[in-house]
């Protein structure tokens, strides 16, 4: 049930007082462990669970419980990000929070600012000594992965929480365009490689009846507001588009040498918006793309009367069309390469690492015994055996060892595991997304995936092969290493507010220019000046200070 706004505001308003109370009670409670049946240490754990998952009866829960003498007392949320985050925030504000948070990055992971705040309040327990004493596999991962160590270690040297590390090749290049190649073939068109060629293709999709039903009902390009990479994909032909966190959102920061900058006020960005606006004005981009949700987009993509969608700028085609469609329409979509613009630019944004939030946090409510048991459990998940079981479930049910004819996703390496397809695997089999802590690129690419990229089981290979089109189009010189640059705790609140306000202002302004409610010739200067009014100069200044400290190794 959603908390009414007044109650929610009141709860958050007294958060500081209650958290202090929570700290003191936590210190008393943590002096000795609470034990359950068989002497197992009880760990109150907050975690998301989808409709098919019951963590109390899950086989991975039983394995971890027996192996590490833990009795989990679960508090679960759904996979709906809004209510999930609200539940953990209310728990923290009330002081009635769990011993352990085990979250999922794209559902309810903690932000860097939240981790800093909870660490400074004493709610989050520093993990670095626990890791050193009890978790050799986690320590090895931190020592061997520079980015993981940088993103895990706060400016004061403490590790207050851990992120998941999941090297997702296709997630690292989210700014893709999926285009209907069956329509291209029917109309005798080549895959577009430039902005002019894309315009010509979209015009043909609109006017030449590629779905063959005799109606002008084709939608040349569409997307939804939750998942869209429309601006980023098309902007790459004009300027380097910084990817926002978690495969989407507004990215604001780039580098010019060691100077922190933003591209959204540049003449090149303005030209990119002009191009996008011209496509909208000519009816080549569906206006619903800027208002509809994911369900509405799926309904369009799955229209039973005819194939309607010509192209969609999204992370993957399963967002807008049902995979395994009876008429095979999902197989019609292939990735278009990054476009080349009038000045020869051809960029693709980089989202690395693809998970940037924190998901494992022990609190001061946890006894020393609970802390040790929990970190040992996580250390097991960092092993290959622990990863296989926690992510996929028991061998022979959730996964199998490769056969002699099986091939890895990356065919240059030896296959390690063959996951049971989701349609064949039992429900409630594993912890899956909750346990993806040490999925290195080599490990992920060692999964067995069929050679047929258009089969449902070969979908991961389809995304892997598509992403090769974008690899190398990122500009690492302009890439701002967001996860490695920690904000000074003294200004973290100010930084968070500035970021929220600026992202909202930029998103609204760009939408106005694209849809034509504002004019790029007459309103652009006011848009740029308005950014200073919502704190752009201060935001860049604070990020510059943080980046300078990062570069200096402080």
UniProtKB/TrEMBL annotation:
Question: Gene3D superfamilies attached here?
Answer: Periplasmic binding protein-like II
Report which superkingdom the organism of origin falls in: Bacteria
Keyword Transit peptide found: no
The family database entries (SUPFAM superfamilies) matched by this protein are listed as:
Periplasmic binding protein-like II
Question: Per its UniProt record, what PROSITE patterns does this chain match?
Answer: PROKAR_LIPOPROTEIN (PS51257)
Query: Which keywords has UniProt assigned to this entry?
Result: Signal
The answer to whether UniProt assigns keyword Membrane to this entry is no
InterPro entries from the UniProt entry? Bact_solute-bd_prot1 (IPR050490)
Q: What protein name is recorded for this chain?
A: ABC transporter substrate-binding protein
